[in-house]
Specification:
The chain has about 325 residues and is an alpha/beta fold. The chain has 11 helices and 13 strands.
């Protein structure tokens, strides 16, 4: 269980004066600015629960994860992870923790992943049976058994990230922190990673916090959504409730897959084009006129077989939640 009470964390930055004459002044005296990163955070996460931490860049997501991992030591408030206090950096706690950052590499570039795994095995004193069992289980789930002895530099980004995941869970952690786990990956690799995470975390009763700007990561893996904005928690509820709010939105989205040279018909031109990629249009429609718009599309032979109705994207719901909390 993770319990956080009245947690505050501030960053200190220094302003540098510009100009050659002020270069010496900068070295002697600098103006200090305190930037609050986390403000009065109160959060409880049950054992085995998977929580999605959502927020804009600079909201405080990674700072919170670093405090939970013990990399940062807040001066105000308390954090308890099970029986441990992360800031004390106890060996027993670190042996049960895994902190995966999508933009950081742990694999040794010129060695096959298996060699890095063996180094990790020695560091964490993993016995032979557990080591083999975890390697076999995770590599099969991720479909990378045939790549274990291929040099890491020869692997694709998706393949390397999968190996990084294996390395992250090799010591059987009970607490896993995931920061942007699918960043930069193609759709197929993202799907594979999400499926693995959902299955592996639940099967091993692992307590997990996952942050991502890709809402599919949160929806497919997490059970609960915590929205953080400017260092404060502004929303905390189940993923199912968040999806329900999207279904109850006053807007719907109509996706149209058009042919080459397609021009929006007059009855669609007043609508907002939420996105356009190649020949696919995403139209934002007020539900009050949705029936009329759909009726016109059904009567249009050019597109009636190539349209889909979708709820308002969760990204839009989250932006509204943020705006309501301002």
């Amino acid at each position: 269980m993770i319990r956080i009470e009245k947690l505050n964390y501030n960053y200190t930055v220094y302003k540098h004066k510009e100009g050659k004459k002020r270069l010496l002044m900068n070295s002697l005296k600098r103006d200090r600015v305190i930037i609050p990163a986390l403000k009065n955070i109160n959060l409880e996460i049950n054992e085995g629960e998977i929580v999605g931490l959502i927020g804009l860049n600079g909201a405080g997501k990674t700072t919170l994860l670093k405090c939970i991992s013990g990399l940062l030591q807040p001066k105000e408030g308390s954090i308890h992870v099970g029986e441990y206090i992360p800031s004390e950096r106890q060996k027993e706690y670190l042996m049960k923790l895994s902190f995966f950052m999508g933009q950081k590499n742990q694999l040794i570039w010129d060695l096959p992943p298996m060699e890095t795994f063996n180094i990790h095995k020695a560091i964490y004193k993993i016995n032979d049976n557990d080591f083999k069992r975890i390697i076999d289980e995770t590599s099969q789930l991720l479909h990378v058994e045939h790549l274990l002895r291929t040099p890491s530099r020869q692997l694709s980004l998706g393949e390397r990230v999968k190996m990084e995941f294996i390395l992250s869970v090799l010591h059987s952690p009970k607490f896993v922190l995931l920061d942007e786990p699918t960043i930069g990956m193609d759709i197929q690799s993202q799907y594979s990673i999400r499926s693995f995470l959902k299955q592996y975390l639940k099967a091993n009763n692992i307590t997990c916090i996952i942050t991502s700007h890709n809402m599919e990561d949160i929806v497919k893996v997490a059970e609960r959504a915590v929205l953080i904005n400017k260092g404060e928690i502004v929303y905390d509820s189940s993923i199912s409730k968040l999806i329900y709010e999207a279904d109850c939105s006053e807007f719907m989205y109509i996706s149209i897959k058009a042919k080459e040279g397609f021009v929006l018909p007059e009855y669609l031109q007043h609508l907002t084009v939420a996105s356009k990629e190649d020949n696919r249009y995403m139209m934002k429609v007020d539900k009050s006129e949705g029936q009329a718009v759909i009726g016109n599309i059904i009567n249009d032979p050019d597109i009636r077989n190539n349209f889909f109705i979708e709820p308002e994207p969760l990204e839009e719901i989250i932006i509204k939640l943020l705006e309501n909390k301002k």
